[in-house]
Amino acid sequence: MPDSFAPVSVPGIDGEYSRKKIMLALMLPLAMSLIAVSMINVALPSIEHGLGASSSDLQWVLSGYALVFGMMLVPAGRLGDIMGRSMFLVAGVVLFNLASLACGTATTPLALNAFRLLQGIGAGMIGPQSAGIIQQYFRGAERAKAFAIFGMTVSVAVAIGPLLCGGIISIVGPDAGWRTAFLANVPIGILAIIAAIFWLPWGRERQFVAILTRHRINTGQLPKTQRKPDVPTVPGTPASLHVDLDPIGMLLLVASVVCIMVPFINATHPIMFLLLILAAVLLVAWVRWERGYKARGHEPMVDMSLFSHSTYINGTSVSGSYFLGGTSIFVLVALYVQDGMGATPLQSGLLTLPNALISGVSAMVVGRYAFRYARTILFGCHVSILTGIAGLAITAWLAEVADLSFWWMILPTMLIGIGQGGLGSCNQTATLMDVPPEMGGTAGGVKQTAERVGTAVGNAIITAIFYFALAHSDWSFAFIWGLAGIACFIIVSASLNLYDRHVNGPGVG
């Protein structure tokens, strides 16, 4: 990690904390939760055989995690902002860890799905706290470098998940392999908990304890001799014991997210798409409620002033539209090379390894320049991804007409990796740079919710295009048409990025 990360002093706490250690404590659980998103695609056939799961069971193993992950992001971000991000991050890791252990020992499809839902809740508690803690303890160029590490972690974790799971299944065997993949999270989770306890500042939690102590003294529950020294306020810390959780606001937003995602991740009948109308009604009701709640002197779950920052709105739009297409690239690659060209799950995972490695390198390299040129770099990243998509289409065509090996896909996926790593790093910086630290967790949760919704909607649309084309032609033709759909979404994201650059300039400094 960058040597320029200076130690951080936390108000009211003796000593200093290493920002390098803070980043490690944040990225370890974040990577663990994201690997669980992408690895499951490789494990589904083994789960089907090992538990006798139906296609409906497998759909919920895949989509149930994504659904509750998306539901939890904003409420968890809000709770972390109010009561302490370090505490909620550790709670999320503990829940994720216990659920992973239960998934690895599940004996029925129903039990596995129930534990996957719990795992998704834990993952949803982790993500917003990582962004919020960076917002709270990093400033300026250091924040840009921290978000570069954040982007690198996201890119590498998502890309490397299928390889890790495919490797475990190849070594242990299909029956025990998928269980081992879940159980492998347990030691990682234990390390993450230990790192968080010792390396995170816990500033807000210490402040909250101090407030509680003063309250108990004032009410006579503690003698004045036990009064602790006054603790200076940490930004975003509540000034009293009153905590306004805005439960109605939470319920309205969670319900709207569910109504958006369910038709796309588990549409059993076309009538389920009517839920999108209900989602629009709920979103309007949520916005009106949040504005009215603040006008009445309360603290809304999401303060609508967050959307007064054009950098935040534009950056979230760029990210959400990119996720409509970008996350489907390797879904199509896996379908094409495994079902269409006879590759094994391990070969499919190895095909993505160079992408994961170069994505991480790209995130770190461009992170050095994000503070000054973030939005300019973002456009270059979009061009790199589109060029890689074109390369994949050409490779698929040559595979059809000249019997070209699927291993040639490594070259265009590396171009995609360059773009993905840089995009994740720079967009995170450009989106959250102007957000006040006390809103960091909530802002990160809203942004990640847009990304999760984009992933669910995009995967449904792109796979529908792919299978429609496959019904009328061959695998290569279907793959190319799916890539064309992805390219359309990437072009939309690039256009929004150009607009953002025009409004807010090339950099964030």
UniProtKB/TrEMBL annotation:
Signal peptide: none annotated. Residues 22-496 form the Major facilitator superfamily (MFS) profile domain. It is found in: Cell membrane. The chain crosses the membrane at residues 22-46, 58-76, 88-111, 146-172, 178-200, 271-289, 310-337, 349-370, 377-399, 405-423, 453-472, 478-499. Keywords: Membrane, Transmembrane, Transmembrane helix. GO terms for cellular component: plasma membrane. GO terms for molecular function: transmembrane transporter activity. It is a multi-pass membrane protein. This is MFS transporter.
